[in-house]
Known about the structure:
This protein has helices at 2-26, 30-47, 57-85. The chain is an all-alpha fold. The longest helix is centred in the last third of the chain and has 29 residues, at 57-85.
Amino acid sequence: MGFRFHLKEINELNLSQINSRRETETGLSEKTELLLSRYSYQQQRMKNGVSSEESHKKPLKYLLNNELRKLCKILKPISLINYRKEGIVGV
Length: 91
């Protein structure tokens, strides 16, 4: 049993490494990607004239905005550092 628990820990560690690697590659967390896909699906349904009776439209947009704001807080300092390294002033 101890061996199985050890394998479970390894699998969880691998999953977290995969998720963090994916975040660094795409810049988006899994939660943000999910919110983006759900939001774009809702927008596509509205464009196609499908009446949406989903009551979570505004909260979904709110959640997506919050996730994107968090991402911008992370990325903005990084981009400012890059601009300063290249000598671009006034950003």
